[in-house]
Amino acid sequence: xxxxxxxxxxxxxxxxxxxxxxxxxxxxxxxxxxxxxxxxxxxxxxxxxxxxxxxxxxxxxxxxxxxxxxxxxxxxxxxxxxxxxxxxxxxxxxxxxxxxxxxxxxxxxxxxxxxxxxxxxxxxxxxxxxxxxxxxxxxxxxxxxxxxxxxxxxxxxxxxxxxxxxxxxxxxxxxxx
Length: 177
Fold this sequence. Notes:
It contains 8 helices and 9 strands. The strands form 3 sheets. The protein has a 4-stranded antiparallel beta sheet with strand order 1-2-5-6. Strands 7-9-8 form a 3-stranded antiparallel beta sheet. Helices cover 45% and strands 20% of the residues.
């Protein structure tokens, strides 16, 4: 990128890439359709059809949105039952036992964080037990979530409104539907 002129050139054809304001949309095999709004300078695209350049800021927002969606879908997967949701969360020490690896391996190897569903609650990293058990069996703990019925979504939205009043902002984010 030429910093003096804020011009990005395509690495395939060499033409100048354009940047607009809009929504970056993509499909995730496990989470479904993801839409992330972006500003000018966060995504550059070329007419030749080459993959766009995505800025670090946009990539970070997309990752945060994916994590928030995972947290919501995990809660919905247990029917919105918060007690059941909490029972399925395990700490790193329990994850060590489930997988038979050390805490150091979990902390240093990205495959655990990338292939086992997890949530952050009150600053603690908690792992989804069914996902960890699946990872132990087949090496990938991710699974495709079932579609949620609209009646269940409305009930959960009402409960979520109540939780957002009492929880810290990061923990409350998973309860926004």
